[in-house]
Design brief:
rod-shaped, mainly alpha, 88 residues, 84% helix
Length: 88
């Protein structure tokens, strides 16, 4: 599992657990438990956002690499000189 996927999954799990805790605190009339649950749910949402950001950065990195490879291929076509791609 990629790091970004792990953050998204863990974040969602923490968010759900926090909402359950928040609901339990509300049902038991326990403001402290409710507040802790709300904080945990918000922390989970934030972790999920971090996972999405990591995924987006990875996508941009992949797109940039593909663009560089495409330019190298065009240069090869123009110069008739093959360029090796060390990361392929």
């Amino acid at each position: 599992m990629s790091n970004s996927t792990g953050d998204k999954v863990a974040g969602k799990a923490k968010e759900v657990a926090g909402k359950v805790q928040q609901g339990a605190g509300d049902a038991l009339n326990d403001p402290e438990m409710e507040a802790k649950g709300k904080a945990k749910a918000e922390e989970g949402k934030a972790q999920g956002v971090v996972g999405k950001a990591k995924e987006a950065v990875g996508n941009v990195k992949d797109a940039a690499k593909d663009a560089v490879d495409a330019v190298k291929d065009k240069v090869d076509d123009v110069t008739n000189k093959p360029h090796t791609h060390p990361h392929k």
